Amino acid sequence: YLSELDRQIKLMKENIISQHSQRDSIPETLENGIIFGVQNEFAFQLLQGHIQDLISHGIDGVKRLNDNFDNLNSKLEYVIKKKEFSKVKKLIEMNSTQIQTFIAETERQIEGIIGKEKIFEDNNLFNLYVRPYLNKWNDSKELLINKLRIFVKKNEDKLYLSQVKYYLEVSNPIKLDLLSSYISIDVDQLKERLVRYIEKNKLNAKIAKDSLISQKIESDISKNDLHFFKDIKTVGNKIYLHFKLNNPTNFNFKDIQMSLKI
Fold first, then answer.
1. Does the predicted model carry a pTM greater than 0.70?
2. Residue 8: pLDDT above 60?
């Protein structure tokens, strides 16, 4: 039924365009006559009804997708806490693709009905019956696109920050090129994000010699994290000290200094 209705609407649209393209050859009295005006208005009213149904369906879809953002945000928060980073990326990409596909398909259907013909631009009947619905769709579409943009930016920001903190716990300090490969982001973009995180106090760390160093982790290390063994022997007036340091953690310690007081 819908495909047949689309076909009829398309034929009607072509008929309207054909009538307008022949206006130069139509006598002025006939062009302004009742039959020509009634036929055009009736055709545009039918076109309006079809456009209205299509755009109403599109706007309902926009509302559903818009209402779903809160549920998606909660789900992403949960998955990020579980450190399932690849799943977070897939959810963001899937939702973004779903919205973009929905908008593109609705636009395709609208274009299939009214086309891109310039003939409609200055048409009073088109502006009266069809234009208001198109404007309403465009407004709803732009709101959804803007919300999607904010959604993606916000959750990507959370994702990258969580990944940085996670890998910094695994290795402190960590090379920036290595970190960028882990989280699949360009090194320069990574540096920009790190500077922003540090400036906004979201990340207690510093960048030094192409590495990221977590100052918080350095200060919060427990004595139990490092196992220290010592063996002291005396031979005559000499003392032999043997030390062994065992690191059972995932932290990467370097440039360790030891002081001996006698």
1. no
2. no
